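This part of the workshop introduces the protein records we will be handling. A record pairs a protein's sequence with a compact description of its fold. Comparing a sequence with its tokens is the quickest way to learn the format. The record below serves as our worked example for the rest of this section:
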Amino acid sequence: MNQLEQLYYEIEYHLLNNSQPSTYFNQIYSLPNFQLYPFALLYQLKYTEQSKKYHPEGNVWNHTMLVIDQAAKVKDQSKNSQAFMWAALLHDIGKPSSTMKKGKKFTSYNHDIIGQKLAKEFLEVFSDDQNFIDQVSMLVRWHMQILLITKRLPNANIKEMKHQVDIEELALLGMCDRLGRLDVDVQSERKSIQTFLEMCKEEKL
């Protein structure tokens, strides 16, 4: 096993066993191997800014650390905690290459679609378990649909989403994503997730 493979399995261990995995990630962030591909895709998150209006915690790394800590609290509710925790870590991996600044505003259009591809490429470096890779990459691909569907935006796509991802798993990830921010209204976010689930159940395949 080479050093990058060892790092991958150490990361997985801490994702699955730590109650607050962000502590471990903040310790390994400065390691030279974490700046090499594919870990560099995560390393870049700290240099990717976000709108303070929606993400007062700051850059994408800070947000991701909050998300994985939230995910660690509920991973036992997941049908596949391995895929769930990796999806929490990789859910915004598409932001560094999609984020643009216009004035004081940051946008990251299609980071979910880009993220699906990057998450797949990341995991394929270390794993040949295609079912696992597909589960993670599809959770990354569809994680923005919770917002799009509940806001009834034009690019919401319930039917295709339901064909490709487990709605309950996506809702669990979405809850962690929404709570992985500072100054969040927990009750409002939980209500939004419930609305998402109800709207999905009403839509026939």
In short: The chain has a mean pLDDT of 96. Residues 3-202 form a domain with the Hypothetical protein af1432 fold (CATH 1.10.3210). The first strand starts at residue 100 and ends at 102. The two ends are 44 Å apart (CA to CA).
